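User: Fold this one for me? It's SGNH/GDSL hydrolase family protein.
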Amino acid sequence: MRRSRIRHAAAIVVAAGCLVLGACGAPVTSAPHQAASPAPGQVVTAFYGDSYTRGTGTSAPERRWSSIIAADRGWWEFNPSVDGLGFVNNRDRLAGSDDLVDRIVGLRPSPDVVIVTMGLNDAFSMPARADDIAAAIDADLDRFRDELPDARLIVVEPFWYSDERPEAIERIIAWVEEAAERVDADHIPGASRWLEGHPEWMAADGIHPDDEGHAEIARRMDEALGRLGL
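Assistant: Here's what I get for SGNH/GDSL hydrolase family protein.
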């Protein structure tokens, strides 16, 4: 079983090149057709995530779940999410001004809402980097809370791509939830199972959700955000 999972994980990393940092193009940081800067009083929402939040697998950026959510709510979207990124995975390649946390806390005007969806890719570095991953989760959420004290911080359970669930993703899910509670962030549970049992919602690479998959994520996220009063 262990060898099977290792082979499976290796196949995922190379399939279509889309879990490898930068293999699928640059982030589309703004929702299509939105103004270059937010209007006075418009809610600014930043998304911190990987390929599932960047929208890899969709036919157009406006079909990704983050842009659907932002458009429905009239939010101004800032989404620098990058393929293959994790709390630690490929983080060293985005050092300095390209680090997503740096970009989000440095955004002007400052975000009113920060939605964190990170963690999927870190499962491929478990258990070897378990301590680093747990520490990075804490460090990132601490920065958002300390440097954006007025922002609504929403931490989403990491997404997952298949019905097979290794222990690694379960541990990361637990760490993310614990860290969210510690910094008094809102937490949205269950997201790792939103696509479970529906391979027809996946793109041709079998890894990323397609337009229908993103529509389902948007539907679930809309319900969850509604319960939080957003």
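One thing worth pointing out: The helical segments are 2-14, 51-54, 65-73, 100-105, 130-147, 167-182, 211-227.
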